[in-house]
Amino acid sequence: MILETLTRFSNKFGSDGELVLAGGGNTSAKEDGVLYVKGSGTSLATITADGFVKMDRSLLSRMLKKEYPAGDREREAEALKELMAVRLPSEMSKRPSVETLLHNLFPQRYVLHLHPAIVNGLTCAKNGENEAKRLFGEDVLWIGLCKPGYVLSKLCCEKMEDYKTKNGRDVSVMLLQNHGIFVAADSETELEAKLNTVIGTLKAQLKETPDMSPQQGENELAEKYKSKIITLYESRPTVIYDGNAQAASFAQSRSDAGPLLKPFTPDHIVYCRAHPLFSDSVEALDSDFAGYRAAHGYPPKIIIAKGLGFFAVAENGKQAETARLLFNDAIKIAVYSKSFGGALHMTDELTDFIINWEVESYRSSQNN
User: Do the Cβ atoms of 208 and 335 come closer than 8 Å?
Assistant: First the structure.
């Protein structure tokens, strides 16, 4: 019964393009000492009961009481090894979500974790924490910028314990800076109501909404860009052009594109790479591309073309379309954040951590 409920609301939320893109988000349920959590590389929209990984809750809780190495690589490798070890014997072929420890922290039966653009317009905004306090008071716990993985789980554990001591109740809604939202409840109905309250409150505060109306077909300049882009990559890539109204507005100049030139969340790094390339013209694209590759060691997945919009470039159609969707998500966040003090990006240090984090590399590989 619990898996039926978990699968049903996972499919429902996962099928809503305003809430979930690509393989983003995860869900869980608890019963009789077992945590059922979304498996890494699965999609909420299509997940079945077999897509959830059964985990031993007592062993998960014990992990947060252990001491791990101080170094990022060593700590996360050891924590991941232990996470895999607390799967029930029947689950050894599955890989649990990277946020499994966070799901286990909530005592409520059901947990939903998403990265909607409307929510991240707040979590990726300069005044995000203050605005969250003003709008939600003690109904929401804010978690500041933190490296994902074990360190984030440990921080959330401490903050959630402090919250319960202060307020006499468990956290049910948690906002993570430059990341997303966790919602926890004991019923599917309550879960949806809490999420809708947050989203409805944020929508009422918006001073501007993104205009994602599509372009009227590809123009001659866009075709020239696409032809040139194909020649710059070692293998013939898939190139998708998107000149929607909001993308074209950001593409008017390098200054206008500024809010899009650094990543907002880990998902944007995983699926779009950390930094887009901005090009002033088709003629300048050769040198722009060479400079980007020299600086980063790899080619861009997103190329912003002055006055046009952007191109998503990848090895195949699925990857290119995912990059397009996620970059449009960044565009929406940039617009929404204006209502909460303006865009606040991930730090360079955290960006580098995500780029080199094995777990996110694995997640990206599942989109091939």
Answer: yes
